[in-house]
């Protein structure tokens, strides 16, 4: 992993692990964050298949939200291969103007989209 990727992961990891019952495991050689005994809500993406991207991949509510994000800021967001058709969006982490509050927000929204009802009813994040 490059130093730039290590720095991004060091900033991303606590945002993901702050979510209730968050766990980290490796998926395809990169850190993936999921709810314990449950679904993935964030995936660290670093030069996957040589694409040059450094990003976090997060869930959206569906194609409409995905398109809205892509239209709103195409330099910040991208549709990741494999996961994009299922409603996931890539949020680039290697821009000089990366808004880490936005990253935290997108991670939290993604967590809410996959969290079981019992966690949401207990107050969520």
UniProtKB/TrEMBL annotation:
The keyword DNA damage does not apply. Gene3D superfamilies: 3.90.1150.30. The keyword Cytoplasm does not apply. Keywords: Ligase, Transferase. InterPro entries: YjbR-like_sf, YjbR/MT2646/Rv2570-like. GO terms for molecular function: phosphoribosylamine-glycine ligase activity; phosphoribosylformylglycinamidine cyclo-ligase activity; phosphoribosylglycinamide formyltransferase activity. Its EC number is 2.1.2.2, 6.3.3.1, 6.3.4.13. This is Phosphoribosylglycinamide formyltransferase-1/phosphoribosylamine--glycine ligase/phosphoribosylglycinamide formyltransferase/phosphoribosylformylglycinamidine cyclo-ligase.
């Amino acid at each position: 992993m490059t130093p730039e990727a290590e720095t991004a992961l060091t900033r991303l990891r606590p945002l993901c692990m702050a979510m209730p019952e968050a766990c980290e495991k490796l998926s395809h050689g990169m850190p993936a964050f999921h709810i314990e005994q449950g679904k993935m809500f964030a995936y660290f993406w670093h030069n996957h298949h040589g694409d040059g991207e450094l990003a976090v991949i997060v869930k959206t509510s569906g194609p409409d939200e995905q398109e809205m994000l892509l239209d709103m800021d195409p330099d910040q967001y991208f549709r990741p291969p494999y996961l994009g058709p299922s409603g996931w969006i890539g949020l680039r982490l290697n821009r000089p103007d990366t808004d880490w509050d936005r990253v935290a927000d997108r991670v939290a929204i993604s967590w809410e989209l996959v969290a079981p009802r019992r966690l949401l009813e207990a107050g969520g994040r």
